[in-house]
Amino acid sequence: MAVRIPPAVVSFGLVLALWGAVSASGLVPALFLPSPAETWRALTELWANGTLGRDLAVSLGRAAVGFGIGAVLGVLIGLATGRIRIVRAVLEPFFTLLRPIPAIALVPLAIVWFGIGEGSKYFVISYTVFLAVWFNTHQGMEFIPRIYGLAARSIGVSGPREFFFVSLPAAAPHIFTGIRLGVALAFLSLIAAELSGASSGLGFRLQEARQYLRTDRMFALLILLGLLGASFDWLVARIGRRLIHWQGAA
Prior knowledge:
- The protein has helices at about 5-25, 35-50, 50-85, 85-100, 105-115, 120-140, 145-155, 160-195, 200-210, 215-245.
- Helix 6 packs antiparallel against helix 8 (about 160-195).
- The protein is mainly alpha-helical.
């Protein structure tokens, strides 16, 4: 009986083998490309001395708070701009103007507004998450097929019942797509927020590793961030598939 190897295992195995071969060949100095073994040792070193555990807890806390604020506001305002014309006319142009501004460009302003404490980091993360969730929620509400509303009204469904039982379920796949994107952006903006004005967290530890030319630590932290982001993305996708089973989307 043939054993089916998951494609992800094959992919990561090939990348790991190629990485190990290139680093062992000596073609690239260890300063620029540490070996997988050196990277693993750097990770275990950070974990053993307690640094990684503390930084991980701090960063996950910041990402969770920023994501929560951004996602809740994004969904609520996205529902409003997607359904109420006057709200859409007032807010959509402004949010469209904000969308191209990257999170890292807001870090200096966030520090001026909120100082170097947690407030500036929450602001940068929630800003990035908010725009992604708002846009997808807005699109989902704005482009619900008219036939859904007509069919609902033809059987006497209108007002709040039409919103909760027709419009919201129809827009739910878009909303969860925005939330899933927001999870990835929360980690992206987290690092941007922690690279300046922080004394703890994974972003701060990356900056510290750069200052001491510890590329082994840089690789270890970047791989850890990738694994964290992928794990939370998988979790949100699973939740989405369960909650929006009628369209099989997330």
